[in-house]
From TrEMBL, chains A, B:
Pfam families per record: RibD_C
Origin: domain of life: Bacteria
Domain Bacterial bifunctional deaminase-reductase C-terminal span(s) in chain numbering: 3-181
Organism: Actinomadura yumaensis
PANTHER family per UniProt: BIFUNCTIONAL DEAMINASE-REDUCTASE DOMAIN PROTEIN, DIHYDROFOLATE REDUCTASE FAMILY PROTEIN (AFU_ORTHOLOGUE AFUA_8G06820)
InterPro entries the UniProt entry points to: DHFR-like_dom_sf, RibDG_C, Riboflavin_Biosynth_HTPR
Protein name: Dihydrofolate reductase family protein
Cited Gene3D superfamilies: Dihydrofolate Reductase, subunit A
Length: 198, 198
C-alpha cells in the first residue's frame, strides 16, 4: 500500500537548517553543506538511500524549501535545482500566493497550492497514482505534516555536526509513536527510519 | 590514553528526560522507562554497550541524577541504585551542599563536590588512576561539560520515542565539532558514538 514518506537531514542536535536562510546560504548562516556531505562526498556508499529520496510518485514541499523568496512571486524563480530537478515527478509547493504551474525538464512539474497541507497532500496522492508521496521539506512543513499525523514513514539522516540554533525538526510535534524500522550509515551520516503511528 | 566519555539516552527529539522529574517519576511525567527499554528488554543484544556504560574508572554526575532532592541533604538518600550501585568505582556528585562521602557495597563511593565541574573532573581523573572518566548525567551536567569542551567521546543512545519537552541534550552547547566513530542498534535503540573536537 502506498504511504507518505519523509526524508530529512538533521544535525546531531536536531536542526534541519541554521538561522537566517537566504539565497546565498539556503541552509542558513555558516551551515553550507554540512548536513549533506554524505550525499556529495559519499554518493556511492549512500546510493540506495539517495535514490530512495526521490523515488516517490509525487512530492510536497514548503515554499521556503522551493526558494528564498517570500510574499509575491518572482516568476523567474523555478527552484534551486536548475533546468532538470531531481524529482522527475509532480511537486506540490505550499504557498499563500497563487502561481501557475511550472513544467521543468525531465518530468518535474511545480504546482502551487494555496489550500493548505491537506489539500496539497490530496493533490499529491492523486498525482502519484498509487505510488508513495514524499514530504520533501523543509522542517516547518515536515513538522506540520507530522503534527497532523499525516506522515507514515520518517527517514532521518543525522549528520555529525551541531548547529546550535535554527529550524528544529519535531518542533511542536507531540503525541506520535515511533517504531524503528532500521538504521544504516557511514562516517558522515546515520540513517534512521521510523514508522509513525498516529 | 584515557579519555572523558559520556553515555546518554535520548529521545528521537533530543530529550534526556521529560518535564517534572520526581521521586516517583525520575525521568519526568509519563516518561517511565521509554528511553531505556533497550537496556531492560534487550539486555543481551545491547550487552556490549551496557557494559561499556559502567566501565570507566570514575564517574561524575549531577545532583539531579543522584536523587530527586534539592537544597539541604536528606542523609538517608544514597542514590537510586540500592545497596550496590552498578558503578563499582568512585562517583563524584556535583552539588552546592556539602556532605560527607558515602561508601556503598561493591566498591561504589559517592563523593560530594561543591567546587564545580572542573574540580569534580579533576578529582575523578585522579581517582580513575589512568582509566577513563565518565560523565554519567543528567542532561544539564552533560551540557555543562560539553559546553566547556571537557568531553572527548559522546555515546548517544537514541530511543524511538518523542518526548516533546523536558531536559534537552545540547541545550546551550555550540562551537564543538563531532567526528562520528560508529553506530549500532536494535529495534529499540540507535547507538551513535561521536568523538568531540574542541
Amino acid at each position: 500500500m502506498s504511504k507518505v514518506t519523509c526524508d530529512i537531514a538533521i544535525s546531531a542536535d536536531g536542526f534541519a537548517a541554521g538561522r537566517n536562510q537566504s539565497l546565498e546560504e539556503p541552509f542558513g548562516e555558516g551551515v553550507g553543506q554540512v548536513l549533506h556531505r554524505w550525499m556529495f562526498e559519499e554518493p556511492e556508499e549512500n546510493a540506495e538511500v539517495i535514490e530512495r529520496i526521490t523515488a516517490a510518485g509525487a512530492f510536497v514541499m514548503g515554499r521556503n524549501m522551493f526558494g528564498p523568496g517570500r510574499g509575491a512571486w518572482d516568476l523567474d524563480w523555478t527552484g534551486w535545482w536548475g533546468d532538470e530537478p531531481p524529482y522527475h515527478a509532480p511537486v506540490f509547493v505550499l504557498t499563500h500566493h497563487e502561481r501557475a504551474p511550472v513544467a521543468m525538464e525531465g518530468g518535474t512539474t511545480f504546482t502551487f497550492v494555496t489550500g493548505g497541507i491537506e489539500e496539497a497532500l490530496a493533490q499529491a496522492r492523486k498525482a502519484a497514482g498509487g505510488a508513495d508521496v514524499a514530504i520533501a521539506g523543509g522542517a516547518a512543513t515536515v513538522n506540520q505534516y507530522l503534527a497532523a499525523g499525516l506522515i507514515d514513514e520518517l527517514r532521518l539522516h543525522i549528520a555529525p555536526v551541531l548547529l546550535g540554533a535554527g529550524e528544529r525538526l519535531f518542533d511542536g510535534v507531540s503525541g506520535l509513536s515511533l517504531d524503528k524500522v532500521g538504521h544504516a550509515g557511514t562516517d558522515l551520516v546515520t540513517h534512521v527510519t521510523y514508522r509513525v503511528r498516529h
